[in-house]
Amino acid sequence: MKRFSTLQRWTGRLTPYASLVLRIAVGWIFLRHGIVKAGMGVEAVAVFFHGLGIPLPHVAAVVVMIVETVGAACVVAGVLTRSWAICMAIEMVVAIQLAVRPTGRPFVLEGLLLAAALALVALGDGPLSLGGLLRKGAR
Question: What is the per-residue pLDDT across 97-116, written as a single tens digit (0 to 9) for each?
């Protein structure tokens, strides 16, 4: 029992840094997808979105590309994490509803990214982040 107590005390000290690991993982996945979409171009992404029945596909393409590039980079750096994570969560809900569910395939990656984005909404930037450093400097 003493070993468990020691382990729990040691791992408990790591809790404030959980957002760092999650930010890097979520941000990197979104960024990779954003880079692919940027390479395709707005028109190609809009055509894809139109085929999914997404309203205003050109606007949606630009918004998604911004969330998946600028937003993802901000999440990795830990700047405005909560705001960008909300955008990412909304994007995953739309993706699940309009792109994945109609195909009948399971929404494993999208579901995981939705859950992780919601966790980042709760966790925020965390202490090891550019946002955390900026807040310390402002004091």
Answer: 999 999 999 999 999 999 99
